[in-house]
Please model this.
Amino acid sequence: MPGIVMAVYPALGIDIANSIYSPSFQRRTAWILLALSIAEAITGFGAGPATSSIVYSLTFGALTRGLALQLHILLIAPLSLFFILHIASGIGLALIRRRITWRPLYTYVIPSVLIVLFLITMYLYSLLVII
Model:
């Protein structure tokens, strides 16, 4: 456990250049979110009863309605993870720019809220998958 904390600690520090609170990290999560959102939209249209035939023809039969529905449900987990990371990065960066330098906020409070939010979304996701 101490090894994990030592490995993650620089990523959660107040130093903008090497942390999840850097603008470059926020840009990377934004691009990943864009790609995941487009994939979620395409698979959502592919899973729909009225639009599945259109997506099926546009993908030359590669994305059937069943596969689109499975992918649509599977994309929820990474989409929620990167959405929560993006929000935490933005909040942390805004607080750093306002010169709030209380170190436990960046190393414990924001990551704890991030983990709790992700656990809640994964619990709700598990309810969706089980049913």
